[in-house]
Write a structure and sequence with these properties.
- The protein is mainly beta.
- It has one domain: Beta Barrel (OB fold (Dihydrolipoamide Acetyltransferase, E2P)), CATH 2.40.50.140.
- Helix content is 7%, strand content 47%.
- A five-stranded mixed β-barrel has the order 1-3-4-6-5.
- The C terminus is likely disordered.
Amino acid sequence: MLNQCQFIGNLGRDPEVRTFSNGNKVCNLRIACTEKWKSKDGERKERTEWVTVAIFQEGLIRVAEQYLRKGSKVFIQGKMATRKYQDQSGADKYSTEIVLQGFDGVLTMLDGKGGDDSGRNDDQQGSGYGAGGRPGNDMDGEIPFAACIV
C-alpha cells in the first residue's frame, strides 16, 4: 500500500506552532492549491482547494517557524491521515490532514525567505528540507501539481 500526498501551494496564514505537555511540538499549515484553466468557450476558470498540514518533525518545524509566512509558496510531501474527535456538544467530527512525520516528510520552500521572491538569483531557488529539517534535493525533475496518491 502507498499513502503519499504531494502538494504545491501558498500558505493562507502564518504557521501555527503549539507545544504539547510532554514538550513535543506540532506546526499547522493551511495551503491553498489553486488550479487554473480555460473552458471550451475560452473562459478562464479557477478552483482553490485548501489543504491542512500537520508537521511533527522537529527540524521541519524550525524551518517553518523561521522562514515561512502567509503567502509563502511551498511543496510538501506527507501522508494523508484522518482523525476523529468530539466537538463541544459531544458529536463525532472528522478531520483529514497531510502529516509530515518520520523519515518521508518533505517541505520545500519554492520562493525566498518569508514568501518574498524579489532579489532572488537562480542559485537560491527551491530550498528543500527532508526528514529532520536537513537539506534535501532541489527537485530537479518534474514536479507533480496537487497530486495525491492513496
